[in-house]
Amino acid sequence: MKGWRGSDIPRARRSDQYAAAILVALAFAASRAFYHSKGIRLDWSTIPWFDQLLDPMLLRTRMAQSLLYLHGQPPLYNLLTGIALKLVPSRPDLVLTPIFAACGLYSAICLYVIMIRLRLPVPMAAAIASAIVASPPFILYESWYFYPHLNVTWLLGAIAWLAQSRGRPGREMAIAAAHFAGLSLTRSLFHPLFFGLVVLVILAVAARGSRRSIVGCFLIPGLLLVAWCAKNEILFGFFGTSSWASRNLSHTVETLVGRGRVQVEERRGQLTPAAGRDPFEDGDSNVVVFGLRPHSTGIPVLDNVHKQSNSFHSVSYNHWTYPASAQFYARNAQHLILAYPATYLKQLFKTSLPIFFQPVDGNGFFQANRQFIPAQAQMADDLEGSTAARWILAIGLLLAATIGINSRWTARAERVVFAVAFLTMAWVFAVGLVGELGENYRFRYNVLWLSWAIASVGYAGSIRHVGWLIDDVRQALSERRRSLSPSIGGVDSTAG
Q: Phi/psi class of residue 39: alpha, beta or left (left: φ > 0; alpha: ψ in -120 to 50)?
């Protein structure tokens, strides 16, 4: 077979790679200039009222204490917000805008690196990366102060550095490990279990002799993640990064099985008082409904029922009653799934799946900036939601999966990247389908650009491998013909 059989990923000339990377950066800069001229700016109006953020006043005055007692979310999103509020209280966007722009540029370069390390031709990789980061959905998320843009940055950075490592332990893999830990400490969607699965997948694919060193690369980032979860276990009684998981799951399950079935189970005495209730009512309501003992912890971020900011939505979901009442929601979700498994699964795919595949920027959160590019945004939504685009993406991913698991045609360095990429896509699909009902498409955004990058690699790789297969067949036929040809030296001749 033509090509290579080694464990490394061959690279194009460095000068070509650097030149293409510069073109990606220029495309990023040009697109940002265009969108800025249209009026798009970072929308940070979410800071006073977003549920995932702590009280801005506490982030300014008691940031360290408030982050220590944060249980509703992983810490990094609130940490970034707190730093910005401390530096420029009245205009945090002056700090956050360049950070989000830098994340966008970094994501663009990482996309490009992933594709060229997976053998996509350099010009094609540069063109695809440029098109993605210049697209309306990308700029709308980059201009919305929320963590999806940060998630994409962590994820693409992690896989790019993993590709740079060529599946071998060392500095690049340690940087990839730090990115994966940062992802889990930014978004609860990427539970510590996901971090553990990433390590297991890499160990399964990597060379046996390097496994101990690979564990060493992931050790310190993993310990930081475990330390945060252990803190939650000690202070709040759960091991994880968010105390809201059972609430979201219970709400989803109740909606899918239907109010009628929930009422039947209530009459049978099978459900807790959490049934049929808004899972995110304020702390005072939690005390009454669940019979909790009223008390003060002396920690404002746990005691305050409402945020001090003047906002239309000021309920504090980091009140001490949320982890204290999480078990009631977990019991209901478990019981309803076991009582109505067929109904639950049927409605999961009938209701949640279509929401998961809605346009990723299709809600009111983006209106502040979407109004400046309505035609471009709608065109992008129509393209993303078209049957043709979905088939192109699906077939590309199928081809990439076929290439990625074929050990004869794929180097170990590439298989590591393919394995982690597909693990991530499967994780987001599964958790995004089960763990939310209403904004499932925001889950999909985390892996949207990675999916297109891997699908592009799938098409290019399949063409390359078909060429190699044809060369193999030709070589085999040629050898076959030579073996069947009579040897001249062996011809019998007689003279009479």
A: left
Residue 5's pLDDT band, with cuts at 50, 70 and 90, is very low
Residue 309 confidence class, pLDDT cut points 50, 70, 90: confident
The pTM score is: 0.91
Would you place residue 12 in the very low, low, confident or very high pLDDT band (cuts 50, 70, 90)? low
DSSP annotation of 7 reads S
Q: Which tokens is 303 given?
A: 């005691």
DSSP state of 279: T
Nearest to 243 by CA among 52, 442, 57: 52
Distances (CA, A) of 281 to 56, 257, 274, 289, 308: 20, 22, 11, 10, 17
Q: Tokens for 54, please give them.
A: 């702590």
Structure tokens at 243: 């105390």
Please tell me the distance from the alpha carbon of residue 11 to that of residue 196, in angstroms, as a whole number: 30
**Cα–Cα distance between 369 and 384 in angstroms, integer?**
19
pLDDT for 494: 42
Burial class (CB in 10 A: 0-12, 13-18, 19+), 293: exposed
- pLDDT number for residue 488: 47
User: Distance between CA 50 and CA 486 in Å, rounded?
Assistant: 82
The CA-atom distances, in angstroms, between 149 and each of 27, 36, 247 are 19, 18, 25
DSSP 61-122: HSHHHHHHT--SS-SHHHHHHHHHHHH-TT-THHHHHHHHHHHHHHHHHHHHHHHHHTT--H
Residue 301: both structure tokens together: 């971020």
